[in-house]
Design brief:
The complex is a heterodimer. By secondary structure, chain A is an alpha+beta fold. Chain A has 16 helices and 22 strands. In chain A, strands 1, 2, 7, 8, 9, 10, 21 and 22 form an 8-stranded mixed sheet that branches. A 4-stranded mixed sheet of chain A has the order 4-3-6-5, with helices on one face. A 4-stranded antiparallel sheet of chain A has the order 15-16-18-17. In chain A, strand 1, helix 2 and strand 2 form a beta-alpha-beta unit. Chain A is globular. The relative contact order of chain A is 0.17. Chain B has 3 domains: about 100 residues, Macroglobulin (MG2) domain (Immunoglobulin-like, Sandwich), CATH 2.60.40.1930; about 100 residues, Immunoglobulins (Immunoglobulin-like, Sandwich); about 70 residues, Carboxypeptidase-like, regulatory domain (Immunoglobulin-like, Sandwich), CATH 2.60.40.1120. The chains are: A alpha+beta, B mainly beta. Chains A and B meet through helix 13, helix 14 and helix 15 of A and strand 1, strand 2, strand 5, strand 9 and strand 16 of B.
Chain lengths: ~700, ~300
């Protein structure tokens, strides 16, 4: 046993915040005008789950008008909105930087209801800055929208998707009405905070079938990165080199000239960074490396919410071990105390969903308790991302839940990625961003058709499904329609029984359940968890020669445990067992599987899985390769129950005073992506600012 | 304050020369973040093999891992893990522990490749066989034997250098005349274990061979995109067991014996083109491939992000 001295070494190095109108830690207490420094003055009520003094009172470290757990899509929006309304705002985030999953998104932001961008495109106008030089992509009639139609679309009982699920039927009506009503003002709010939108060119999943409601967010390539001016350098956009990205942009930005004009680029960087810039500019304060863990309430199941507890959750560089720093610093408070309590008049939970918590998500699908399968953006956000913190903390104080079955009614909630050889298979991050080391490889995007070039095996080395059908996913029922409704585009009829009559459903159903075969309880699993185990794409050099796939860094990495290369199949099996963190058992059947497969190829028939619908290729030419096939749980649709003001509601249907939630922390809204989070944040920030003192 | 070192090795036993993962965690009471701390990994002779950096603080443990190669000699092998005092991370005294590796006798494995998919009877054909030791032993000059479906030796060879981009796969080229037997058969290649100073296991691999009649009829296939009419290079063309790939002009040629065939033409991001029929003369086939209706990668990114 070793004694460690200097136990106070890790105490916080408190630095005063910097920035226009920024409030330092001492100022928070002045502004609060209630608590004295370092101690609470709450006489009487007993507070649970907080650091108590000997008298049972809470020791508060900060006192602020609005505290927000989570600096992503909903959190940043709420922070800016509350700040606009004159409140002091503090955001805590478990990550080292802001943006959450919004930062690595595609920025396809679906709102509607006759929002400003729909109207702009209907009128054939350009944007206020004159960046857009292309004509509208959608015809005016596809943009002629209103909030009543939007509300109808997102509560339409009659829609069934090609997976046989009902994406809109179970949405909370009050929530949808508030969302629809607030779509147009949210669009304008985003535009007022440096977000620039392309031409509308469709609708995002869960956004309705009747109209086109989604543009991308863009910036223009220029000589310098200037959020106010709307420009970004090629280097910062991750476009200076095909195999590099940048600290500003975890994912290389995409060419968006088709929807803007020459020089336009887009992805989540064009949304998250402008909002973050605006938040810092307006004096929102941040404590990063800080994971929200508990809600502090007057009584456990009654009374108002008083604040939250957050623990120190440092993220270190994967190679050097150095503490990671956010891209921008102004407004940051460097606090490294193990635990802090933040008092606030309103608490907003925007800490994401439960996609990254295998235990919680397993309540919807037990096989997804498998930790081998991450949530999207696992490198960018770390283990604390999408960890169900809002759900867990909310339940502890009696919050109700909503939409818990809706995880099953969006087709890509959990899916097999066609990007092989990397754990974080959802995105194409390249070296250059600080978190690249957490994944170690960009991965190889093989597309659906690439699955005919190899066999897919389970954790013991056996095939389990027809590989060419394995990655196929049905569409998600949004304008102009993905096959789930008989009417496409403007021919779609909402609330029509013919959308879901069984003859039609039988005809359009197109899901093969390959994902479910991949998650099956299989040989090598053990009680109590019966983990499914990882799955592997096994191929030979001849497949590489046929396809031209780049089996080299940064696309794959022989050191990250998600790509292996070997002289023989036996050696390949040994390397996988040795090098992959979730390979709990040896691939004892792999050699036999390959031998059998080669026999099927020679016979021209696959009696197990009928692969002969596409060319079958033998696996014989060394060297041999194994790349991980990832099951990704992208986003979550069940969560806390809220009302139309984003107030959290308890099991008796009563509002939990001073507690709000938005984004994926909230359930009852089966809409994919950004449009949900931003509107929730807008509403929550507005309502939180109205909390009585 | 107390600290302890927790070490885990996977897999163990590990083949000679094979890779294994060494995971180390430092757990302190009360919890203490020791990230950036460096540990020294040494062999039994106290020589440092590598350093391991603690890079993750999770579940109140400071963790790090590294991948190493097992020694070539079978038997037990020790590793010493030393964490020297480092005031930068709060460690005031050295910590160390030892772990034991178990290394079984060397495993051998064989590979067979470039066997033609359709071999004309009584014609000469060639393929390659290879032999590898798990420890990467130099196996040049080792015998390999090929047996047919009746357990008769049809070929022998002696391994030479290493093949292509492999580390230690010693290969030989086999050339022989196909028998006068139509059909698909199971042959095998064997590598005996005798004659080596360090014990090795024997190895055997079964592989199929298909013998066919002479192809008399030329089938010329041209692959194009149904929407754009552009030619499709590198499309796979299969009339089992005969195969080809289209060239830059989208053309491929198969030389087939008379008979019934199912022609399959497949290219990335396209639905396969399938036609069935009888071959009894030269033919030209225009294979028009429809682009895949399932989501392309671009649509997937748009759908998900």
């Amino acid at each position: 046993m070793t004694v460690i001295k200097n136990k106070n070494k890790n105490r916080n190095k408190k630095s005063e915040s910097i920035g226009p109108e920024g409030l330092n830690r001492r100022d928070f207490f002045k502004a609060g005008a209630v608590a004295t420094v370092g101690a609470a003055t709450l006489a009487g009520p007993t507070v649970v789950n907080a650091r108590n003094t000997s008298s049972g009172e809470v020791e508060w470290d900060y006192d602020v008008d609005v505290v927000i757990a989570g600096g992503g899509c909903a959190g940043i929006t709420a922070a800016i909105r509350a700040r606009d309304l004159g409140k002091t705002v503090l955001v805590v985030d478990q990550n080292y930087d802001l943006g959450g999953r919004m930062l690595h998104s595609g920025s396809f932001l679906s709102l509607g209801g006759g929002d400003a961008i729909q109207k702009r495109d209907m009128a054939g106008e350009s944007d206020a800055e004159g960046f857009i030089t292309v004509p509208p992509v959608m015809p005016p009639e596809a943009l002629d929208d209103n909030v009543d139609l939007l509300f109808t679309d997102v509560t339409d009982w009659s829609i069934v998707d090609p997976k046989g699920q009902s994406p809109y039927r179970y949405n909370e009506r009050e929530l949808m009405r508030a969302w629809a009503d607030n779509c147009p003002p949210t669009r304008e709010f985003l535009m007022e905070n440096y977000v620039r939108f392309t031409r509308v060119n469709g609708t995002h999943g869960g956004g309705g079938l009747s109209r086109a409601r989604a543009p991308y967010c863009f910036l223009m390539l220029g000589d310098k990165t200037d959020i106010r001016a709307g420009t970004i350098t090629r280097e910062d956009a991750g476009l200076a080199h095909p195999e590099r990205t940048s600290p500003l942009a975890p994912v290389q930005m995409a060419d968006r000239s088709m929807h803007v004009g020459p020089g336009a680029v887009s992805n989540g960087v064009a949304l998250a960074r402008p909002l973050e810039f605006s938040a810092r500019e307006k004096g929102v304060q941040f404590i990063l490396h800080r994971k929200f863990t508990e809600i502090i309430r007057e009584e456990q199941f009654s009374g108002r919410v008083l604040g939250l507890t957050a623990t120190y959750s440092p993220r270190h560089h994967p190679t050097s071990g150095e503490l990671l720093r956010s891209y921008w610093q102004d407004g940051n408070i460097d606090d490294r105390q193990p635990v802090i309590n933040i008092r606030a008049k309103a608490v907003i939970l925007a800490s994401g969903g439960h996609a990254g918590n295998p235990q919680v998500r397993s309540m919807f699908y037990p096989a997804m308790r498998e930790p081998a399968f991450p949530t999207s953006g696992s490198a960018l956000q770390g283990d604390g991302g999408q960890d169900a913190s809002a759900l867990i903390a909310g339940l502890k104080i009696g919050a109700n839940l909503a939409g818990m079955q809706q995880n099953l009614s969006y087709p890509t909630v959990f899916h097999i990625s066609t990007r092989l050889g990397t754990r974080d298979a959802y995105t194409t991050m390249m070296p250059g961003h600080p978190t690249f080391g957490f994944r170690g490889s960009a991965g190889i995007s093989v597309g659906n058709s690439g699955f005919e070039e190899f066999i897919a095996v389970n954790q013991v080395g056996k095939r389990f499904f027809n590989e060419v059908r394995l990655p196929k996913k049905p569409g998600s029922n949004r304008y102009p329609g993905d096959g789930g409704t008989p009417g496409k585009g403007l021919d779609h009829t909402p609330l029509d029984w013919r959308n879901c009559r069984h003859e039609w459903v039988r005809e359009m159903y197109s899901y093969d359940h390959g994902l479910d075969a991949a998650l099956a309880m299989n040989e090598g699993s053990e009680a109590p968890n019966y983990y499914s185990g990882p799955i592997w794409a096994v191929m030979d050099q001849a497949a590489i020669d046929r396809t031209g796939w780049e089996m080299r860094y940064p696309y794959v990495n022989e050191k990250n445990g998600y790509f292996f290369k070997a002289d023989t199949i036996e050696e390949l099996a040994n390397k996988i067992h040795a090098g992959h963190p979730y390979q709990r058992v040896p691939l004892v059947h792999l050699s036999k599987t390959v031998e059998t497969w080669n026999g099927y190829v020679a016979a021209g028939a696959d009696p197990e899985f009928e692969r002969e619908e596409k060319p079958m290729n033998a696996i014989t030419k060394p060297p041999f390769y194994a790349l991980s096939i990832m099951v990704i749980w992208h986003d979550s649709y069940g969560g806390l129950r809220v009302n139309g003001r984003q107030q959290v509601v308890d099991m008796q249907g009563q509002v939990i005073q001073s507690l709000y939630a938005g984004g994926e922390a909230v359930g009852g809204f089966n809409k994919h992506g950004l449009g949900k989070g931003h509107v929730h944040g807008f509403i929550a920030g507005t309502q939180a600012a109205r909390e009585p003192l | 304050m107390d600290a302890k070192m927790i070490v885990h090795i996977s897999p163990n036993p590990v083949d000679a020369g094979a890779e294994f993962t060494l995971n180390v965690a430092i757990k302190c009471d009360p919890p203490w973040d020791m990230c950036t701390g460096r540990l020294s990994i040494c062999d039994t002779n106290e020589h440092e093999i590598t350093q391991l950096v603690l890079t993750e603080f999770k579940d109140q443990e400071s963790r790090g891992s590294t991948v190493l190669s097992a020694p070539a000699k079978p038997g037990p092998a020790k590793l010493k893990i030393l964490f020297k005092a480092d005031h930068n991370v709060g460690l005031t005294e050295n910590m160390q522990t030892e772990v034991l590796l178990v290394i079984p006798p060397h495993a051998s494995s064989v590979a067979v490749w470039d066997v033609p998919p359709a071999i004309q009877t009584e014609k000469e054909f060639s393929f390659y066989v290879g032999l590898r030791c798990s420890a990467g032993c130099a196996l040049k000059g080792r015998p390999l034997e090929v047996f047919d479906q009746n357990d008769r030796i049809v070929a022998t060879a002696i391994t030479t250098g290493t093949w292509g981009d492999t580390q230690a796969l010693h290969y030989a080229k086999i050339t022989l005349v196909a028998p006068n037997s139509l059909g698909t058969y199971e042959w095998r290649v064997c590598a005996p274990s005798s004659g080596l100073e360090v014990p090795h296991s024997s190895a055997v691999l079964k592989f199929p061979v298909t013998f066919v009649r002479e192809g008399k009829y030329e089938i010329r296939i041209n692959a194009t995109n149904a929407l754009t009419s552009k030619v499709i290079p590198k499309a796979q063309v299969v009339a089992h067991p005969f195969r080809s790939i289209t060239d830059s002009d989208g053309n491929a040629t198969l030389c087939l014996p008379a008979g019934e065939y199912r022609l399959l033409v497949s290219a990335a991001d396209h639905e396969p083109y399938i036609i069935e029929g009888t071959v009894k003369d030269d033919m030209e086939i225009m294979a028009v491939l429809v682009p895949e209706t399932d989501m392309t990668e671009i649509e997937l990114e748009r759908e998900y992000m």
